[in-house]
């Protein structure tokens, strides 16, 4: 039966399965090797894991992804640009993992370089066809913003890998829809191939990363994955309507994008960051996942809840792409905005609850409040 499938369908299935197998089989060896090399994320006050854990699993994710998508020898020049850029991001992220950190400005410069590589391979936004410099500027903003947002999302066991797999699944669905519509290979075929490779590699990684994690992807993983997903957002042929075309990848990658945007604004309003350099370098446990724990979610439930949000936003993006009537498009946009509003309300409510809880605990320590049981919304472990 498998041999009766169309060539493209067989390639996508083989790519996803091979990427999964390579990641799942390679991760145990990486855990042992990274421990021996001392590439370990130690326990710290601002971190939520309870024991030293190897970081650098992103190297195996990339190798599984790259091998799986290159073996079919089924690609075009734009795909080559994405692979080259992903490899450069992997190298910079791996240096960060092995050294225990590099200046954020070097990551920013790396993103400028890899975006230039995408331009060379003609991977860029096409929103202002009469004025290419604007397309270049918005492409840079998109690549830098999405990659940085995804880099910040890697803050809880299973979160970044799961969201990457969900977003990639949404991209793959769109590629398959395009194939069914035209009945043959198109530029979206390579888009689908990359998506299938990402799905398999991330699922293989999640076998060892879902709580309790035995390995972290590290910056080697979050940096290359963020860039690759951002590049897919540029590659995709969404729809002829430019407004809808911009909205679809934003919805599919909505969890990291809106989480990142909210905390950047919140940090500025709280006065925690005042300069561009501080905004780039500041790191704190105040993302959506952390805030869900503040209001009583376990870490596992927080991650699963974010999966649900990511899937809902991604499905909204697909529905929006398939909408033909203006009313359908407006309803899709409204649904997407409603989900974003729910996320914003959760994040702001969690912040107020958390501040109130801290004030109560301080009052207890100072002897000005009765010693009562912890409030239900106090942070707790799984």
Fold and architecture overview:
The protein has 14 helices and two strands. With 382 residues, the protein is mainly alpha-helical. It has two domains: 237 residues, no CATH class; 141 residues, no CATH class. The N and C termini lie far apart (44 Å). The C terminus is likely disordered.
Counting helices, strands and paired strands, the structural category is mainly alpha
Summarize the main sheet.
2 strands, antiparallel
Count of helical stretches:
14
Runs in which pLDDT lies below 50 for 5 or more consecutive residues are 369-382
The radius of gyration is: 21 Å
Tell me the overall shape: globular
Number of domains: 2
Our estimate of the beta-strand percent is under 5%
Widest β-sheet, arrangement of strands: 1-2
Look at the structure and give the mean pLDDT: 84
* Helix/strand order, N-terminal first: HEEHHHHHHHHHHHHH
Number of strands: 2
Summarize the structure.
With 382 residues, the chain is mainly alpha-helical. The protein contains 14 helices and two strands.
């Amino acid at each position: 039966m498998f041999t009766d499938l169309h060539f493209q369908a067989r390639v996508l299935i083989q790519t996803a399965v091979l990427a999964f197998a390579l990641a799942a089989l390679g991760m145990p060896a990486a855990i042992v090797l990274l421990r021996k090399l001392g590439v370990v994320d130690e326990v710290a006050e601002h971190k939520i894991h309870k024991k030293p854990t190897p970081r650098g699993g992103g190297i195996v994710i990339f190798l599984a992804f790259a091998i799986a998508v290159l073996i079919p020898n089924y690609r075009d020049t734009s795909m080559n640009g994405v692979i080259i850029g992903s490899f450069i991001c992997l190298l910079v992220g791996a240096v960060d993992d092995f050294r225990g950190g590099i200046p954020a400005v070097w990551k920013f410069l790396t993103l400028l370089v890899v975006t230039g590589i995408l331009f060379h391979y003609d991977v860029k936004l096409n929103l202002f066809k009469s004025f290419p410099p604007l397309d270049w500027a918005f492409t840079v903003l998109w690549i830098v913003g999405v990659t940085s947002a995804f880099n910040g999302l890697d803050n809880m066991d299973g979160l970044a890998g799961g969201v990457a797999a969900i977003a990639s699944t949404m991209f793959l669905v769109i590629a398959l829809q395009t194939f069914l519509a035209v009945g043959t290979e198109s530029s979206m075929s390579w888009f689908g191939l990359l998506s299938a490779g990402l799905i398999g590699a991330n699922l293989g990684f999640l076998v060892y990363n879902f709580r309790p994690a035995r390995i972290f992807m590290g910056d080697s993983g979050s940096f290359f994955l963020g860039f690759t997903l951002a590049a897919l957002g540029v590659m995709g042929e969404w729809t002829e309507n430019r407004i809808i075309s911009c909205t679809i990848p934003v919805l599919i990658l909505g969890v990291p994008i809106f989480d990142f945007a909210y905390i950047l604004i919140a940090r500025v309003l709280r006065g925690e960051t005042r300069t561009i350099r501080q905004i780039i370098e500041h790191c704190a446990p105040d993302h959506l996942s952390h805030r869900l724990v503040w209001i009583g979610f376990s870490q596992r439930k927080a991650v699963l809840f974010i999966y649900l949000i990511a899937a809902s936003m991604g499905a909204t993006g697909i529905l929006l792409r398939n909408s033909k009537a203006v009313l359908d498009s407006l309803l899709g946009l409204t649904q997407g905005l409603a989900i974003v509003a729910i996320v914003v309300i959760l994040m702001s409510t969690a912040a107020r609850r958390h501040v109130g809880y801290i004030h109560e605990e301080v009052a207890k320590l100072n002897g000005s409040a009765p010693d009562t049981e912890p409030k239900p919304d106090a942070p707790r472990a799984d």
